[in-house]
Amino acid sequence: MKIAGRPACRDNMKLTKTEKDFLQYQRVARMASVDSNGVAHNVPVCPLVDKDKIYFGTERKARKLRNIQANPSVTVVFDEYTEAWSFLRGVMVQGTGRVVNKKEFQELRKKIYSKFSQYESNAPLGERDSVIVEVTPTRKFSWGLE
Amino acid sequence: MKIAGRPACRDNMKLTKTEKDFLQYQRVARMASVDSNGVAHNVPVCPLVDKDKIYFGTERKARKLRNIQANPSVTVVFDEYTEAWSFLRGVMVQGTGRVVNKKEFQELRKKIYSKFSQYESNAPLGERDSVIVEVTPTRKFSWGLE
To answer: What is the pTM of this model?
Structure first.
């Protein structure tokens, strides 16, 4: 698809209220990280959006985490596909990723578990084998959200 | 989410029949390209999968195209989110992108229009302002597709 019908491009880093409303209820987003050879990794994550930051849990051994530790630049796209292309909408957020510390981990895990009840039973975020990554947005591009 | 429940990792470049079946019917995928500073761009595309290659149309002036022209490495993720996390599934394909030539463009545009009837009316792929990118897979990672 070409995102041409409603070309709402914004290049500053402040998310609008509409964008935040859109982001915070999304159940899945796709997160690209980049290795030292300039090769992207791109996988779905279940995002928590809290106070203008994006969070997601991941395994310590995950490729995306190794990428972020080598190159903190990450790009998360939140979008909804519909066959009625006039109504396509989404936000691409480029930002900087970092692993949160132990105290933050415990607070954020509660919020993530609260949003995604699946975590505790299906894929618990243990402190030993998991981390939470915080993404601070630096740039954005949105469409269809007016 | 952690893709932990059904960790079907494969690192060779040959797509299985199941993976091809899954890919070819998807209506949307997310495509990451990388600029010369190692910053990813990540947006939805409407993919055509034909003979082990992935194709998508884009505007000539699009950022993703500039990225691919500078760094042909692209990563496309095809996935289906469901609240029942045991049934999450998808394929991440890393590959090499190139802009197809004029003859290929005309043949592929027909196939893309055939899969996505929205194109002709909503976002026609004109030869002057659009290109079709071909992605040759080099590496893949899949989950939930057994």
So the answer is: 0.92
